[in-house]
Design brief:
By secondary structure, the chain is an alpha/beta fold. The protein has nine helices and 13 strands. It has two domains: about 170 residues, Peroxisomal Thiolase, Chain A, domain 1 (3-Layer(aba) Sandwich), CATH 3.40.47.10; about 150 residues, 3-Layer(aba) Sandwich (Peroxisomal Thiolase, Chain A, domain 1). Helix 2 crosses helix 3 and helix 6 runs parallel beside helix 7. It is globular and about 50 Å long. It binds coenzyme A.
Length: about 325
Protein backbone atom coordinates (compact mmCIF):
# COMPACT_ATOMS: atom_id res chain seq x y z
CA UNK A 1 0.00 0.00 0.00
CA UNK A 2 1.20 3.51 -0.84
CA UNK A 3 0.00 7.00 -0.06
CA UNK A 4 -1.40 9.87 -2.04
CA UNK A 5 -0.31 13.36 -1.06
CA UNK A 6 -3.66 15.04 -1.55
CA UNK A 7 -2.46 18.57 -0.83
CA UNK A 8 0.22 20.54 0.97
CA UNK A 9 0.55 23.93 2.61
CA UNK A 10 3.24 25.98 4.30
CA UNK A 11 3.86 28.89 6.62
CA UNK A 12 7.05 30.92 6.47
CA UNK A 13 7.63 33.88 8.81
CA UNK A 14 7.94 37.24 7.08
CA UNK A 15 10.93 38.30 9.14
CA UNK A 16 14.25 37.11 7.75
CA UNK A 17 17.93 37.26 8.52
CA UNK A 18 20.32 37.96 5.64
CA UNK A 19 23.91 36.72 5.73
CA UNK A 20 25.19 40.25 6.26
CA UNK A 21 22.89 40.69 9.29
CA UNK A 22 25.12 38.22 11.19
CA UNK A 23 27.94 40.75 11.09
CA UNK A 24 26.14 42.49 13.96
CA UNK A 25 26.83 39.55 16.30
CA UNK A 26 29.74 37.57 14.90
CA UNK A 27 32.85 37.74 12.76
CA UNK A 28 31.51 36.44 9.45
CA UNK A 29 30.55 37.56 5.95
CA UNK A 30 28.15 36.79 3.14
CA UNK A 31 30.83 35.22 0.94
CA UNK A 32 31.93 32.68 3.60
CA UNK A 33 28.36 31.63 4.36
CA UNK A 34 27.31 31.34 0.71
CA UNK A 35 30.36 29.39 -0.42
CA UNK A 36 30.45 27.01 2.60
CA UNK A 37 26.68 26.42 2.85
CA UNK A 38 24.75 27.80 -0.16
CA UNK A 39 22.52 29.83 2.18
CA UNK A 40 21.81 33.52 1.52
CA UNK A 41 18.89 34.23 3.84
CA UNK A 42 16.63 32.42 6.28
CA UNK A 43 13.17 33.15 7.76
CA UNK A 44 13.13 33.84 11.51
CA UNK A 45 10.02 33.51 13.64
CA UNK A 46 9.16 36.73 15.41
CA UNK A 47 6.00 36.55 17.50
CA UNK A 48 4.95 33.20 15.97
CA UNK A 49 5.05 30.11 18.17
CA UNK A 50 6.10 26.97 16.31
CA UNK A 51 2.61 25.46 16.76
CA UNK A 52 1.07 28.53 15.11
CA UNK A 53 3.24 28.05 12.03
CA UNK A 54 2.28 24.36 11.95
CA UNK A 55 -1.42 25.13 12.32
CA UNK A 56 -1.34 27.74 9.53
CA UNK A 57 0.43 25.28 7.20
CA UNK A 58 -2.14 22.62 8.13
CA UNK A 59 -5.09 24.96 7.45
CA UNK A 60 -3.72 25.71 3.98
CA UNK A 61 -3.24 22.00 3.22
CA UNK A 62 -6.79 21.20 4.44
CA UNK A 63 -8.27 23.99 2.34
CA UNK A 64 -6.39 22.87 -0.76
CA UNK A 65 -7.39 19.24 -0.18
CA UNK A 66 -11.02 20.33 0.20
CA UNK A 67 -11.62 17.96 3.09
CA UNK A 68 -13.55 18.21 6.35
CA UNK A 69 -11.08 18.33 9.29
CA UNK A 70 -13.43 15.93 11.09
CA UNK A 71 -12.37 13.26 8.57
CA UNK A 72 -8.73 13.42 9.68
CA UNK A 73 -8.02 10.26 11.68
CA UNK A 74 -4.50 11.08 12.81
CA UNK A 75 -2.23 14.10 13.20
CA UNK A 76 1.52 13.56 13.37
CA UNK A 77 3.67 16.60 14.06
CA UNK A 78 7.39 16.38 13.38
CA UNK A 79 9.28 18.87 15.53
CA UNK A 80 12.26 19.36 17.80
CA UNK A 81 11.26 22.86 18.84
CA UNK A 82 7.82 22.33 20.32
CA UNK A 83 6.53 25.23 22.42
CA UNK A 84 5.37 22.82 25.11
CA UNK A 85 6.90 19.79 26.78
CA UNK A 86 3.31 18.66 27.01
CA UNK A 87 0.83 18.68 25.32
CA UNK A 88 2.30 17.59 22.03
CA UNK A 89 2.37 20.07 19.18
CA UNK A 90 0.01 17.73 17.29
CA UNK A 91 -2.65 18.21 20.02
CA UNK A 92 -2.29 21.99 19.94
CA UNK A 93 -2.66 21.97 16.14
CA UNK A 94 -5.71 19.70 16.52
CA UNK A 95 -7.28 22.36 18.74
CA UNK A 96 -6.63 25.02 16.10
CA UNK A 97 -8.00 23.14 13.09
CA UNK A 98 -10.93 21.33 14.72
CA UNK A 99 -9.88 17.81 13.74
CA UNK A 100 -12.13 16.43 16.46
CA UNK A 101 -11.85 12.77 15.47
CA UNK A 102 -8.07 12.50 15.21
CA UNK A 103 -5.48 10.81 17.36
CA UNK A 104 -2.46 13.10 17.74
CA UNK A 105 1.19 12.77 18.67
CA UNK A 106 4.64 14.20 17.88
CA UNK A 107 7.68 12.61 16.30
CA UNK A 108 11.18 13.74 17.21
CA UNK A 109 13.59 12.60 14.52
CA UNK A 110 15.20 16.02 14.02
CA UNK A 111 15.80 16.92 10.39
CA UNK A 112 14.62 13.48 9.27
CA UNK A 113 11.34 14.20 11.11
CA UNK A 114 9.05 14.63 8.11
CA UNK A 115 10.27 11.37 6.58
CA UNK A 116 9.74 9.51 9.87
CA UNK A 117 6.29 11.10 10.32
CA UNK A 118 5.14 10.41 6.75
CA UNK A 119 6.30 6.82 6.96
CA UNK A 120 4.53 6.41 10.31
CA UNK A 121 1.35 7.81 8.74
CA UNK A 122 1.59 5.25 5.99
CA UNK A 123 2.04 2.41 8.50
CA UNK A 124 -1.04 3.59 10.46
CA UNK A 125 -3.13 3.71 7.30
CA UNK A 126 -1.89 0.26 6.33
CA UNK A 127 -3.17 -1.30 9.56
CA UNK A 128 -6.37 0.72 10.04
CA UNK A 129 -8.93 0.73 7.21
CA UNK A 130 -11.00 3.41 8.90
CA UNK A 131 -8.25 5.99 8.54
CA UNK A 132 -9.37 8.23 5.69
CA UNK A 133 -6.87 11.08 5.96
CA UNK A 134 -3.74 11.76 7.99
CA UNK A 135 -2.30 15.22 8.56
CA UNK A 136 1.50 15.21 8.65
CA UNK A 137 2.93 18.53 9.73
CA UNK A 138 6.50 19.66 10.36
CA UNK A 139 7.04 22.93 12.22
CA UNK A 140 10.21 24.41 13.67
CA UNK A 141 11.33 27.61 15.36
CA UNK A 142 15.04 26.73 15.49
CA UNK A 143 16.03 30.38 15.96
CA UNK A 144 14.95 30.16 19.61
CA UNK A 145 17.50 27.39 20.20
CA UNK A 146 20.46 29.05 18.51
CA UNK A 147 23.49 30.50 20.22
CA UNK A 148 23.96 33.61 18.08
CA UNK A 149 27.54 33.96 19.30
CA UNK A 150 28.44 30.61 17.68
CA UNK A 151 29.33 31.38 14.06
CA UNK A 152 29.62 27.79 12.92
CA UNK A 153 26.03 26.92 13.89
CA UNK A 154 23.80 30.00 14.04
CA UNK A 155 24.18 30.84 10.34
CA UNK A 156 22.73 27.51 9.20
CA UNK A 157 19.16 27.45 10.47
CA UNK A 158 15.79 29.00 9.64
CA UNK A 159 12.19 28.75 10.84
CA UNK A 160 9.04 27.58 9.09
CA UNK A 161 6.42 24.89 8.69
CA UNK A 162 4.83 22.72 6.04
CA UNK A 163 1.99 20.21 6.11
CA UNK A 164 0.58 17.44 3.98
CA UNK A 165 -2.82 15.75 3.88
CA UNK A 166 -2.29 12.14 2.87
CA UNK A 167 -4.65 9.29 2.09
CA UNK A 168 -4.12 5.59 1.32
CA UNK A 169 -3.51 4.72 -2.31
CA UNK A 170 -1.97 2.00 -4.46
CA UNK A 171 0.70 4.30 -5.86
CA UNK A 172 4.40 3.44 -5.72
CA UNK A 173 5.84 3.69 -2.18
CA UNK A 174 9.04 2.44 -0.56
CA UNK A 175 10.90 3.65 2.48
CA UNK A 176 13.89 3.13 4.73
CA UNK A 177 14.31 4.60 8.22
CA UNK A 178 17.56 4.38 10.17
CA UNK A 179 19.55 5.87 13.01
CA UNK A 180 23.09 5.78 14.36
CA UNK A 181 22.92 6.71 18.05
CA UNK A 182 26.69 6.41 18.44
CA UNK A 183 26.78 9.93 16.99
CA UNK A 184 24.06 11.31 19.29
CA UNK A 185 26.48 13.84 20.82
CA UNK A 186 27.50 15.35 17.47
CA UNK A 187 24.33 17.46 17.13
CA UNK A 188 22.22 18.24 20.18
CA UNK A 189 20.42 20.73 22.41
CA UNK A 190 19.89 19.97 26.08
CA UNK A 191 16.38 20.40 27.44
CA UNK A 192 15.79 22.17 30.76
CA UNK A 193 15.20 18.76 32.30
CA UNK A 194 18.77 17.92 33.31
CA UNK A 195 20.38 16.69 36.51
CA UNK A 196 22.00 19.42 38.66
CA UNK A 197 25.40 17.75 38.11
CA UNK A 198 25.08 18.45 34.39
CA UNK A 199 24.10 22.07 35.03
CA UNK A 200 27.15 22.75 37.14
CA UNK A 201 29.37 20.73 34.77
CA UNK A 202 31.48 19.54 37.70
CA UNK A 203 31.09 15.86 38.45
CA UNK A 204 29.25 14.42 35.49
CA UNK A 205 30.54 14.18 31.95
CA UNK A 206 28.01 12.56 29.64
CA UNK A 207 30.06 13.11 26.51
CA UNK A 208 27.72 15.77 25.16
CA UNK A 209 29.04 19.28 24.45
CA UNK A 210 28.88 21.79 27.26
CA UNK A 211 26.53 24.40 25.86
CA UNK A 212 23.94 26.49 27.68
CA UNK A 213 20.64 24.63 28.17
CA UNK A 214 18.37 24.80 25.12
CA UNK A 215 21.14 25.91 22.76
CA UNK A 216 22.05 23.86 19.73
CA UNK A 217 25.59 22.48 19.68
CA UNK A 218 27.27 20.53 16.93
CA UNK A 219 30.54 19.13 15.74
CA UNK A 220 30.15 20.53 12.23
CA UNK A 221 32.85 18.38 10.68
CA UNK A 222 31.51 15.10 12.13
CA UNK A 223 27.96 15.98 11.08
CA UNK A 224 29.23 16.86 7.61
CA UNK A 225 31.04 13.52 7.28
CA UNK A 226 27.95 11.62 8.45
CA UNK A 227 25.61 13.61 6.19
CA UNK A 228 27.55 13.04 2.98
CA UNK A 229 27.29 9.27 3.52
CA UNK A 230 23.78 9.14 5.04
CA UNK A 231 22.08 11.24 2.38
CA UNK A 232 22.61 8.81 -0.49
CA UNK A 233 22.53 5.68 1.73
CA UNK A 234 18.74 5.52 2.28
CA UNK A 235 18.03 5.79 -1.42
CA UNK A 236 20.62 3.13 -2.20
CA UNK A 237 18.98 0.77 0.32
CA UNK A 238 15.50 1.42 -1.11
CA UNK A 239 16.90 0.91 -4.57
CA UNK A 240 18.47 -2.44 -3.58
CA UNK A 241 15.24 -3.58 -1.87
CA UNK A 242 12.85 -2.60 -4.65
CA UNK A 243 14.84 -2.35 -7.86
CA UNK A 244 13.85 1.31 -8.32
CA UNK A 245 16.80 3.04 -9.96
CA UNK A 246 18.01 6.62 -9.75
CA UNK A 247 17.16 7.09 -13.44
CA UNK A 248 13.48 6.46 -12.67
CA UNK A 249 13.42 9.31 -10.16
CA UNK A 250 12.10 12.61 -11.50
CA UNK A 251 13.08 14.67 -8.45
CA UNK A 252 15.37 14.18 -5.49
CA UNK A 253 14.16 16.27 -2.56
CA UNK A 254 16.98 16.18 0.00
CA UNK A 255 17.20 17.65 3.47
CA UNK A 256 18.31 21.24 2.92
CA UNK A 257 21.29 21.55 5.25
CA UNK A 258 24.20 22.50 3.05
CA UNK A 259 24.60 22.72 -0.74
CA UNK A 260 27.97 20.93 -0.58
CA UNK A 261 26.38 17.90 1.09
CA UNK A 262 23.73 17.78 -1.64
CA UNK A 263 26.35 18.17 -4.39
CA UNK A 264 28.24 15.20 -2.92
CA UNK A 265 25.03 13.13 -3.07
CA UNK A 266 24.43 14.17 -6.68
CA UNK A 267 27.96 13.08 -7.55
CA UNK A 268 27.45 9.76 -5.74
CA UNK A 269 24.33 9.05 -7.81
CA UNK A 270 25.93 10.38 -10.99
CA UNK A 271 22.89 12.57 -11.60
CA UNK A 272 22.75 16.25 -12.44
CA UNK A 273 22.06 18.81 -9.70
CA UNK A 274 19.16 19.86 -11.94
CA UNK A 275 17.27 16.83 -10.59
CA UNK A 276 17.59 18.11 -7.00
CA UNK A 277 15.06 20.54 -5.55
CA UNK A 278 17.02 23.25 -3.72
CA UNK A 279 15.43 25.80 -1.40
CA UNK A 280 18.16 26.14 1.24
CA UNK A 281 19.37 29.40 -0.33
CA UNK A 282 16.25 31.21 0.94
CA UNK A 283 15.06 29.00 3.83
CA UNK A 284 18.33 27.78 5.36
CA UNK A 285 18.05 24.54 7.31
CA UNK A 286 14.56 24.39 8.83
CA UNK A 287 15.14 20.90 10.30
CA UNK A 288 12.00 18.75 9.91
CA UNK A 289 10.42 21.57 7.90
CA UNK A 290 13.08 21.45 5.23
CA UNK A 291 11.91 18.59 2.99
CA UNK A 292 8.17 19.41 3.07
CA UNK A 293 8.88 23.14 2.53
CA UNK A 294 10.97 22.23 -0.53
CA UNK A 295 8.31 19.82 -1.82
CA UNK A 296 5.48 22.28 -1.22
CA UNK A 297 7.33 25.06 -3.03
CA UNK A 298 8.14 22.78 -5.97
CA UNK A 299 4.46 21.80 -6.22
CA UNK A 300 3.32 25.43 -6.00
CA UNK A 301 5.75 26.40 -8.78
CA UNK A 302 4.54 23.53 -10.99
CA UNK A 303 8.01 21.91 -10.94
CA UNK A 304 6.79 18.71 -9.27
CA UNK A 305 3.83 17.30 -11.19
CA UNK A 306 1.32 14.51 -10.63
CA UNK A 307 2.58 11.09 -11.67
CA UNK A 308 6.24 11.97 -11.10
CA UNK A 309 8.46 9.82 -8.90
CA UNK A 310 10.09 11.56 -5.96
CA UNK A 311 12.90 10.54 -3.64
CA UNK A 312 12.73 12.31 -0.27
CA UNK A 313 16.06 11.78 1.50
CA UNK A 314 17.19 13.17 4.82
CA UNK A 315 19.49 13.07 7.83
CA UNK A 316 19.69 14.83 11.14
CA UNK A 317 20.42 14.77 14.84
CA UNK A 318 20.22 11.36 16.41
CA UNK A 319 21.93 10.71 14.13
CA UNK A 320 18.86 9.78 12.13
CA UNK A 321 18.53 9.29 8.42
CA UNK A 322 15.99 7.89 6.01
CA UNK A 323 14.26 8.07 2.68
CA UNK A 324 10.94 7.62 0.93
CA UNK A 325 10.39 6.96 -2.75
CA UNK A 326 6.85 7.74 -3.85
CA UNK A 327 4.72 8.78 -6.75
CA UNK A 328 3.22 12.25 -6.37
C1 LIG B 1 29.47 24.15 9.76
C2 LIG B 1 30.20 24.07 8.43
C3 LIG B 1 29.50 24.95 7.40
C4 LIG B 1 31.62 24.57 8.61
O1 LIG B 1 32.30 24.48 7.36
P1 LIG B 1 33.78 23.91 7.29
O2 LIG B 1 34.20 23.98 5.89
O3 LIG B 1 33.79 22.56 7.98
O4 LIG B 1 34.55 24.99 8.09
P2 LIG B 1 35.54 24.78 9.32
O5 LIG B 1 34.75 24.38 10.53
O6 LIG B 1 36.67 23.90 8.86
O7 LIG B 1 36.05 26.22 9.52
C5 LIG B 1 36.95 26.83 8.60
C6 LIG B 1 37.30 28.19 9.13
O8 LIG B 1 36.18 29.06 8.98
C7 LIG B 1 35.85 29.63 10.23
N1 LIG B 1 34.42 29.84 10.32
C8 LIG B 1 33.50 29.01 10.85
N2 LIG B 1 32.28 29.56 10.75
C9 LIG B 1 32.45 30.76 10.13
C10 LIG B 1 31.58 31.78 9.73
N3 LIG B 1 30.24 31.71 9.94
N4 LIG B 1 32.09 32.85 9.11
C11 LIG B 1 33.41 32.96 8.87
N5 LIG B 1 34.28 32.02 9.23
C12 LIG B 1 33.82 30.93 9.85
C13 LIG B 1 36.37 28.64 11.27
O9 LIG B 1 36.57 29.26 12.50
C14 LIG B 1 37.65 28.18 10.62
O10 LIG B 1 38.63 29.15 10.82
P3 LIG B 1 40.14 28.72 11.19
O11 LIG B 1 40.61 27.94 9.99
O12 LIG B 1 40.81 30.02 11.38
O13 LIG B 1 40.01 27.90 12.42
C15 LIG B 1 30.28 22.59 7.92
O14 LIG B 1 31.09 21.82 8.76
C16 LIG B 1 28.92 21.97 7.85
O15 LIG B 1 28.08 22.36 7.06
N6 LIG B 1 28.67 20.91 8.65
C17 LIG B 1 27.38 20.26 8.70
C18 LIG B 1 26.51 21.02 9.64
C19 LIG B 1 25.05 20.72 9.43
O16 LIG B 1 24.57 20.69 8.32
N7 LIG B 1 24.32 20.57 10.54
C20 LIG B 1 22.92 20.31 10.54
C21 LIG B 1 22.65 18.93 10.06
S1 LIG B 1 20.97 18.52 10.10
Amino acid sequence: MGINILAMGSYVPEQKLLNDDFKKFIDTNDEWIRTRTGITERPMAGWEPAWYMGAEAAKKAIERAGIDPADIGLIIAATITSDFLTPSMACVIQREIGAVNAAAFDVNAACTGFIYALDTARRFMQTDDSMKYVLVVAAEALSRFLDFSDRTTSILFGDGAAAAIVEPSDKLYASHLASDGTGAHFLCARSLNVAPEVKTETEFDDGFPKKPLHKLAQDGKEVYKFATKALPRSFDIISEKTGITKDEIDWFIPHQANIRIIETAAKHFGVSMDKFIITLDHYGNTSSGSIPLALNEAIEKGIVKRGQKLALIGFGAGLTYGGIVLEY
